[in-house]
Fold this sequence. Notes:
By secondary structure, the protein is mainly alpha-helical. The protein contains eleven helices and four strands; from the N terminus they run αββαααβαβαααααα.
Amino acid sequence: MLKRVxxxxxxxxxxxxxxxxxxxxxxxxxxxDGHSPFYVAMRVGKNDRPFKMVKLRSMVxxxxxxxxxxxGANDNRITAVGQxxxxxxxxxxxxxxxxxxxxxxxxxxxxxxxxxxxxYTPVERKLLSxxxxxxxxxxxxxxxxxxxxxxxxDPDIAYNQLIxxxxxxxxxxxxxxxxxxxxxxxxxLTVIAVLSREKALAGLQGILxxxxxxxxxxxxxxxxxxxxxxxxxxxxxxVTSRDGNPFA
Length: 248
């Protein structure tokens, strides 16, 4: 209950404070092609329930029709205004509306499309036991997701091999240790990450050490080593496709 009160109040205040930034950018998105500045995307929420997530549109109209769910920093579907939106994570701010409504929480595992949640291992299914969030531990560790997927021949497979294993592991770690105080600290570090990713990662180390995170998690969260393909939590093979047999 306390988490919901925090989410409700903080998201309402956040929407008001963000409006001087969001409104001009919304106008610019509309001005570039005459279409809605919002992108309403279906995502999977708590208990596997779908919901409509509101994002500030950073791509061309009908970009989702390409069938590609993961986005590299050099994706040609991203508009000129969209590059600015993504650089400063402005597309995440509109999700405060989803938090205000109760679809999401400020902090929680990032929501995914159904094509991705259908690939979850039994261990990863626990990620759907709580409300998804705008940010969490993995949002800070993988705040450079677009750069990781840049120049990948198949961004969706690269996401599943390079990002999903660590992202799911960190999401599960958050669920095991979640608290209002942890949420507040992660919200603060998320803001810091926009200004300085290095400082945010350094601050995250202290949080992870305080919750006795395993050594491999601490190493991953430093992001000093190149990411390599790994199986997702609960899996014993690396994902190679997103069809009925993802390990084929």
